[in-house]
Amino acid sequence: MRGALFRRIAIFLAVAGPGIITGNVDNDAGGITTYSIAGAHYGYSMLWVLLLVTIALVVVQEMSARLGAVTGKGLADLIRERYGVRTAVFTILLLVLANLATTISEFAGVAAASEILGISRYIAVPAVALFVWVLVLRGSFKVVERTMLVLVLLFGTYIVSGFMARPDWSQVWRGLTVPTVSSDPGYITLVIALIGTTITPWMQFYQQALVVDKGLGQADLPYVRADTYLGAVMTDVMSFFMIVACGATLFPNGVRIESAAEAALALRPFAGQYATVLFAVGLLNASTMAASVLPLSTAHAVAEAFGFESNIGTGFRDAPVFWGLYTFFLMVGTSILLFPRANLVKVMLFSQTVNGILLPVILIAMLRLVNDKRIMGRHTNGRVANAIAWAQTITLIALTGLLIYQTLFQRTK
Questions:
Q1: What φ, ψ does residue 371 adopt, rounded to 5°?
Q2: Among residues 197, 160, 190, which one has the least CA distance to residue 29?
Q3: Is the Cβ–Cβ distance between 129 and 334 less than 8 Å?
């Protein structure tokens, strides 16, 4: 009995990685900003939304991981085969635009966090770009994966920050379990943004690519699912503590913020210098991971869609298109940020808008693929899973549509 348990744990540890890494990288600079603003402006009243989003994230990412394990192909590859080159080109173009803009915002997070810690952005940003480029290009798949898993541990700084803020846990529990509905336009916009920053299109492409790169198959599905569930829960546990830290300190004192960096600095008078440092370290770690993964996800998707080699374990000579794209996206993200007049707010809004357009396309494509018996065999969705997935997809489409409308029209007034 005990031997069987240890064997299962050992298999899980060997399989784990794609879901945990993808989930935690989702807590990037944009995500941390959204969660920090939610806590600072509205206290604990959005925690219940985070609980529902976790369920939605589990459903979406499980389908992505299952597609990869059953077919042995990436999402871009399947879209090209199933829907044709035109659809693949349209999808990949939107993904490239969104991911490039998001990559720039990740390096903005690196710059902001490093300056809080007393390091110039002109040193930190190029250093981080060089680090992730060398890590991914020169390291094997196992080295990259293990490095990412070690970096995931640094997200624990947000848990520590949350406890250092000394929240009223009874009020936290109430915010988590009792839905709060408000007609405040700012509240509605932030709820939509919270959902949009938690479920993003790059995640489906990246996790499926990692499952394929790791060589996981149908026999590994129970462990692939467990890895996916753990990753989704972990990312939103960290998000939970970001909201709690800001909700316990900034909200009662009426402190308004507009970025994760402002949140880190604003914590100092209420939770102490160490809370600010921990928050900044968490932001630097999250931005570094995302600055590595976003270009990698984009290069994977483009190379897959057009039939080029796209495995992390290959060298530059064996996969020049893949590595050339990865290098290009890193260089663009780094160089634009270093321009002193770069308008990062517009960059983030652009990324948010393009992701909002792309997400419905990806969700519908995934649902059709995962229900195609010619592709999935006996591993298609059941009736209950389909009902949940379609209801969730329709809701997400409506919410992202509203977010796009508010981004394009409301904020320009």
A1: -105, 5
A2: 197
A3: yes
Q: Which token pair is 160?
A: 């520590």
| pTM of the predicted model as reported, rounded to 2 decimal places | 0.84
Phi, psi of 337, deg, nearest 5: -65, -35
| Chosen CATH of 2-342+372-379 out of 3.40.30.10, 1.10.150.170, 1.20.1740.10, 1.10.510.10 | 1.20.1740.10
Tell me the pLDDT tens digit for each residue of 51-89: 888 988 898 899 999 999 999 888 888 888 888 888 888
CA dist 371 → 208, 365, 381 (Å): 16, 10, 6
- Distance of alpha carbon 88 from alpha carbon 168, whole angstroms: 49
Query: Encoding tokens for residue 2?
Result: 């005990």
Residue 374 burial (C-beta neighbours within 10 Å; 0-12, 13-18, 19+): exposed
The pLDDT tens digits for 112-141 are 888 888 888 888 888 988 888 888 877 676
Mean pLDDT (whole number) for 201-218:
86
Rounded Cα gap, residues 174 and 242, in angstroms: 17
SS3 379: helix
CA angle 356/178/51 to nearest 5° reads 40
Token pair listed for 284? 């630097």
Task: Decide if 402 contacts 192 (C-beta within 8 A).
Answer: yes
Task: Give the whole-angstrom CA distance, residue 108 versus residue 102.
Answer: 10
Residue with structure tokens 């939107």?
A: 94
Going by C-alpha positions, the residue among 334, 233, 298 that lies closest to residue 76 is 298
10 Å Cβ neighbour count for 264?
29
Question: Which DSSP string corresponds to 286-354?
Answer: HHHHHHHHHHHHHHHHHHHHTT----TTS-TTT-HHHHHHHHHHHHHHHHHHHSTT--HHHHHHHHHHH
pLDDT given for residue 229 in this prediction: 93
- Count Cα neighbours of 71 within 13 Å in the Cβ-side half-sphere: 27
Residue whose structure tokens are 């790059």:
202
